[in-house]
Design brief:
single chain, 353 residues, mainly beta, 3 helices, 23 strands, 9% helix, 35% strand, binds calcium ion
Length: 353
């Protein structure tokens, strides 16, 4: 009996609503198939969407086919549940000793968000190299020896959010005990860990007579005595006016320049080659072959202290000599083609940009 009356009511309402149904609604941009108005306060549906209407007005929660959208219409106020506090920073990185503004928003249960003023959030550092986050949400990074993860935390009305930040090692020689000593802190950490006095630039902890600063520049392993930079001078068979300077290892990212002098006074050292050859060819191997056959003016050729090429200003006694070089694996051979002086000294200069 009761069931029957409800069916009658629905039918009656359907009969009332039915004349109000519209034809499909269209504009220049869209077409919406008009729903079947099942009943006020019930669900209206079409192939594209559903609408839970409220009695009296055809409003309520509506959903559409993918891409899904949800709307709550027709209420004086909209009730939403806060499900999380989301924190953000753009970008999510910060250079060491610099600052980054953080922001926050409440995530609501309908997947919308509501921004929260940063000043309303209680900020703190959860982990990592951040020296602090002020009341405005401005995070300040500490110094680091390598790119390092940090986590910021915010609390607002009982919800806690976290945000991962990366503090970038933007200043290579500024960390703790390793700061300002001429060696990248990441290199010192790699071989010596943190706060190890053996990482000091002028020490030679592996006892190979090459200190840490030199091993850093030369791309060596400062804790392995077998990792050394070696230089030898050899005669060239059948070429009494030539000498070979052989050195290794040649490491990528370095430039090697052979300089020579007839004596050991500081002022008289000049590059063995001028514009090309060993000096210019930034270390990387593979560049073997003759390529280095020095474009230097060829003015040498003649006797002893050939004053050619004028590369490094110092005209003085013996200028530089023409040379060639070749690489064999990590070993480089530079041939001085005018080693005619009775005495001649050689050095290899290593430059790490
Ligand atoms: Ca640093
Ligand atoms: Ca350092
Ligand atoms: Ca050493």
């Amino acid at each position: 009996m009761k069931t029957k009356s409800i069916v009658l009511f629905a039918s009656a309402l359907g009969a009332l609503v039915a004349p109000l149904r519209a034809t499909p609604r269209t504009s220049a941009n869209y077409t919406i198939a008009t729903d079947v108005a099942d009943a006020g306060g019930k669900r209206a549906s079409s192939a594209n969407y559903t609408n839970d209407g409220s009695a009296g007005r055809a409003v309520g929660i509506s959903t559409a086919a993918p891409p899904a959208e949800t709307a709550k219409a027709g209420y004086i106020g909209q009730l939403t549940e806060v499900t999380a506090l989301q924190l953000a920073a753009t970008p999510a990185t910060v250079n060491e000793t610099a600052t980054r503004q953080l922001s926050g928003a409440q995530l609501l249960d309908d997947l919308t968000t509501s921004a929260v003023p940063a000043t309303s959030i209680s900020w703190s550092v959860q982990s990592g190299p951040l020296t602090g986050i002020d009341a405005n949400g401005l995070a300040t990074a500490a110094t680091v020896y390598q790119n390092t993860a940090a986590t910021a935390q915010g609390v607002y009305l009982g919800n806690t959010g976290t945000l991962g930040l990366t503090v970038l090692d933007s200043i290579p020689d500024n960390f703790g005990n390793y700061a300002g000593d001429g060696i990248e802190d990441a290199w010192q950490f790699q071989y010596f860990g943190l706060n190890n006095p053996l990482a000091a630039p002028l020490l030679d902890p592996d006892g190979d007579n090459q200190n840490n600063l030199f091993e850093y520049a030369a791309g060596l392993v400062p804790t392995n005595p077998l990792s050394r930079f070696l230089v030898t001078i050899a005669a060239v068979p059948g070429q009494p006016t030539q000498r070979q300077v052989v050195f290794s290892p040649v490491v990528a990212g370095r430039s090697y320049t052979v300089i020579s002098s007839p004596d050991l006074s500081a002022a008289s050292w000049t590059p063995l080659t001028s514009s090309s050859g060993s000096s210019g060819s930034s270390g990387s191997s593979g560049s073997s072959g003759s390529s280095g056959s020095s474009g230097s003016s060829g003015s040498s050729g003649s006797s002893g202290s050939s004053g050619s090429s004028g590369s490094s200003g110092s005209s003085g006694s013996s200028g530089s000599s023409v040379s060639t070089y070749s690489d064999n694996g990590s070993q480089r051979t530079v041939t001085d083609t005018s080693a005619t002086a009775t005495k001649k000294f050689y050095k290899v200069e290593i430059t790490k940009p």
